[in-house]
Amino acid sequence: MAVPPLVSARSLVDDALAVVHTLAVAEALALHGRDDVLFVDLREPVELAREGRVPGAFHAPRGVIEFWADPTSEWHRPELGRAGVRLVLYCAIGWRSALAARALQEMGIPQVSHLGGGFAGWQAAGGPVATAG
Question: In terms of pTM, does the model score above 0.90?
């Protein structure tokens, strides 16, 4: 039996980027603070503690986002299912958030996008940063 060829992580990210909505940092900065937008930080707790986060962002580690976003899951978090609220996912540089945005899109969750360049791009553009806590 032939073993299928390995698909690289970069290939998965490229495939996700082809189908998800990517926000430029300037667009994300303009959305920040709106009641109808929720920034979702997918990074690990150690990253938040070390680097801070977008003020007001909801923390949902990448490993659980699908379970927390699924309203039929016992682990559902209502913050991720508020009607009319756009989710802006971000990670360190935009790879994990692209994959997560694609997964949520495939789950039928409306109004999901990801931050191109991730938290690094946000910081480089002078976006506000809150200390983790």
Answer: yes
